[in-house]
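cron nightly-structures :: item 1 of 1
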Amino acid sequence: EDARWKEPCWLHVRFLYNASAFSSMRTALIRVKDSAIKSVLFPEEQEEQEQEQEGEGEKAGGGMGGTGFVFLDQSLNEEQRKAARRVIRSCLFPSPSLCRHALLIFGPPGTGKTKCVVEAVLGSIVRGGGGVRVLCCAPSDSAADTL
């Protein structure tokens, strides 16, 4: 044991913002703007409207909509629920073997992305009845361990 940490003390911690990662992501989005993959990364507005209507049904039905969405983690906020619902719908409809879209969950640290991904993965597996295959990618070993 280090004697320095037995006494209460003040620590000065500074978090630095690394703009290069965000710059790379912005460049990728600009490149995809007019490409054929845009429709895969950004599904049509009609699907978003359908999902919003389902979300309204969930609120009215105490967590269950017409599609039977019951979230395993009840502490998710509305944005996390929307993202998890979209991933689950993408994985299961029209069937688990015909996943419609590749979806990205992105945001700053501490916004609940991991909770959302875990909900989406578990929800897809539970609702898929064993017919769902999941591939989760992470930028580091520690991030993969967390998932």
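cron nightly-structures :: done
The CA atoms of residues 77 and 112 lie 9 Å apart.
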